[in-house]
Design brief:
9 strands, alpha+beta, four-stranded antiparallel beta sheet, globular
């Protein structure tokens, strides 16, 4: 810039000294961009790590926690939560409502092996066999509110050792669904429980009965129902 006060012209050295300033500023801005990109990249990596570790905590602790959970699955992982281990859905179509199916029905009868406080348990079970396989529904009252229960199809009638062994599609195979039919449910505040489970295969008349147990004490069979094939 010219100095209009003194009337003198600017020195060439001054102009040359001033010009590099924008270059230095541009260089500083340019050198700042990699740092900004690095910061963004680090943030993205950190966010990804948090997602993989499950909402916080270091990855080692998250891995240990996952391993512990896999080694000790909670019994409550039942109703439609475990892959290949479906044990019922309270909102599914009940067995007695399955279209184009043959339905067998049975009334639950108390067993001597029932635990204390189960004298008022009663209910009904239905087994439907249709185009899509087998559907089983149990409906019970007189249970302990909030308690979890398990029910299984059995291979013998109730008069024969309280239903005998579990029914299996492939005898001697896995003791879990889908080779067996298990139903798990929780009694509501009135002591009522109802649940339905589906299986792709038909039981034929091999599933003679169904038994209900407390989940925490499955040796204590509460009640048994014979199917009226």
């Amino acid at each position: 810039m010219y100095d209009h006060t003194s009337g003198s012209s600017p020195l060439r050295g001054t102009a040359s000294a001033i010009r590099p300033a924008p270059e230095r500023e541009g260089a500083a801005a340019h050198s700042g961009r990699p740092r900004a990109r690095l910061a963004v990249a680090c943030t993205a990596v950190a966010a990804t790590a948090l997602l993989l570790s499950g909402c916080g905590g270091d990855s080692e602790n998250a891995s240990n926690k996952s391993a512990d959970e896999a080694a000790s699955p909670s019994p409550s992982k039942s109703v439609g939560e475990m892959d290949g281990m479906a044990m019922g859905d309270p909102s599914a179509t009940p067995a007695d409502k399955i279209p184009d199916a043959e339905v067998a029905k049975g009334a639950f009868k108390l067993l001597d092996t029932r635990p204390p406080g189960m004298d008022d348990v009663q209910g009904t079970a239905w087994l439907a066999q249709g185009p899509k396989g087998t559907t089983v529904t149990v409906s019970l009252t007189g249970l302990k509110p909030g308690e979890k229960y398990m029910s299984h199809l059995h291979a013998q009638q109730c008069s024969a050792e309280n239903g005998g062994e579990h029914f299996q599609f492939d005898k001697g195979g896995a003791t879990t669904p889908p080779n067996e039919v298990h139903l798990m449910f929780t009694a509501d505040k009135l002591g009522m429980g109802m649940v339905t489970v589906n299986n792709d295969r038909k039981t034929g008349d091999g599933a003679a009965a169904i038994v209900v147990h407390p989940l925490a004490a499955q040796d204590n069979r509460i009640a048994c129902a014979d199917f009226d094939f």
